[in-house]
Write a structure and sequence with these properties.
- InterPro entries: AAA+_ATPase (IPR003593), ABC_transp_ATP-bind (IPR050319), ABC_transporter-like_ATP-bd (IPR003439), ABC_transporter-like_CS (IPR017871), Oligopep_ABC_C (IPR013563), P-loop_NTPase (IPR027417).
- Keywords: ATP-binding, Nucleotide-binding, Transport.
- This is Oligopeptide transport ATP-binding protein AppF.
- Helix content is 29%, strand content 21%.
- With 346 residues, the protein is an alpha/beta fold.
- A hairpin with a 5-residue loop joins strand 1 and strand 2.
- Helix 5 packs across helix 6 and helix 6 runs parallel beside helix 7.
- The protein binds adenosine-5'-diphosphate (ADP), iron/sulfur cluster and magnesium ion.
């Protein structure tokens, strides 16, 4: 099999908690990301889903080098990029770009759209020499479905959906190979979300992009992801192909998240069992021993407090044929169909 374009291994980000003003003393750590592993194949979309605060944005920031990992590696085309600096780092950064969540705050209100989209060329003039920039930016506006004549307008003159298109155009400016999209549609109206997702889908084909697509809701990533990883409290607890996660989930947390996904068909909705989780997500400064989900899990037993479940195919499921046998960090993983399988569309 071809080498993955990106491979993340043992990724950790702990933010120190300190007391004292003059003499700072570390008293603990916010374990925002606490051991994340995944790989991304060329041309693939990996969805990463989990509730707010589980560490999704921190993973995204480490991938694009806005944060330095506390531990672990990020391997891009066979090279660990967490240790690079200078020219080598710049060249890798060019190839991994981010699209941010909030199109209202991520664009500088005092810059024209042309300057916003063309700003990455200041750092990488080799991609667009000065005389060529205006045309390149206008091409990008066209590619994301905006009128190239809008180049001199300001962000406030656009709607939320249009602003996210501007953010996407900026992400594409350097012709990256990987786009890390951190909740790119979460701030948009539902009616606009599908348009932006369709645009990302089309761009993926046109520019042969690989995507990490982050969302807090499993329903949003369903149609764009080839594989999905579910995060809880700084770790991926279940990961697999689209159908493995949606139709054959084996981790109780994934099952609970799926039970909250809207089901359009009223009859199917009636038969769906809603799983309400007890309690709140624990603080990332104080992660439960053993399985980090155990304080909310209806299946928890003594073993769950003593032994950390690894993200792997559970041994008792490994001999089962088909989609049930996929990576799930649960000692007692078992399939539970929560959402009725989708009928193939006609
Ligand atoms: N710079 C920081 N310093 C301290 N804690 C942080 C910092 N950034 C994020 N966190 C904490 O790390 C956890 C994960 O945050 P984040 O990655 O933004 O989650 P998500 O994107 O899934 O909502 C949260 O508890 C958040 O408060
Ligand atoms: S390991 Fe135990 S607590 Fe964790 S998800 Fe599985 S059953 Fe629940
Ligand atoms: Mg976030």
């Amino acid at each position: 099999m071809a080498e993955p374009i990106l491979e993340v291994s043992g990724l950790v980000k702990h933010y120190p908690l300190t007391t004292g003003i003059l003499f700072k003393k570390q008293v603990g750590a916010v374990k925002a990301v606490d051991g994340v592993d995944f790989q991304l194949d060329q041309g693939e979309t990996l969805g990463i889903v989990g509730e707010s605060g589980c560490g999704k944005s921190t993973v995204a920031k480490m991938l694009v080098n806005l944060e330095r990992p506390t531990a672990g590696s990020i391997t891009y085309k066979g090279e660990d990029i967490t240790t690079l600096s200078g020219k080598a780092l710049r060249s890798v950064r060019r190839n991994i770009q981010m699209v941010f969540q909030d199109p209202y705050t991520s664009l500088n209100p005092r810059m024209t759209v042309g300057d916003i989209i063309g700003e990455p060329y200041d750092i990488h003039p080799e991609v667009a020499p000065k005389g060529d920039r205006r045309r390149k930016v206008q091409d990008l506006l066209d590619v994301v479905g905006l009128n190239p004549e809008y180049i001199n307008r300001y962000p406030h003159q656009f709607s939320g959906g249009q602003r996210q298109r501007i953010g996407i155009a900026r992400g594409l400016a350097l012709r990256p190979e990987i786009i890390v999209a951190d909740e790119p549609v979460s701030a948009l109206d539902v009616s606009i979300q599908a348009q932006v997702i369709n645009l990302l889908d089309r761009l993926q084909n046109d520019f042969e992009l690989s995507y990490i697509f982050i969302a807090h809701d499993l329903s949003i990533v369903r149609h764009i992801s080839d594989r999905v990883g579910v995060m809880y409290l700084g770790r991926i607890v279940e990961i697999g192909k689209d159908a493995e996660i949606y139709d054959h989930p084996t981790h109780p947390y994934t099952q609970a998240l799926l039970s909250a996904v809207p089901v359009p068909d009223p009859e199917a909705r009636e038969h769906r069992e809603r799983i309400i989780l007890a309690g709140d997500v624990p603080s990332p400064t104080n992660i439960p021993s053993g399985c980090r989900f155990r304080t909310r899990c209806w299946k928890a037993q003594d073993r769950c407090a003593a032994e950390v479940p690894l993200l792997a195919v559970p041994p008792h499921l490994s001999l089962l044929p088909g989609p049930t046998a996929h990576d799930s960090a649960c000692h007692f993983a078992e399939e539970k169909q929560v959402v009725p399988p989708e009928e193939p569309s006609e």
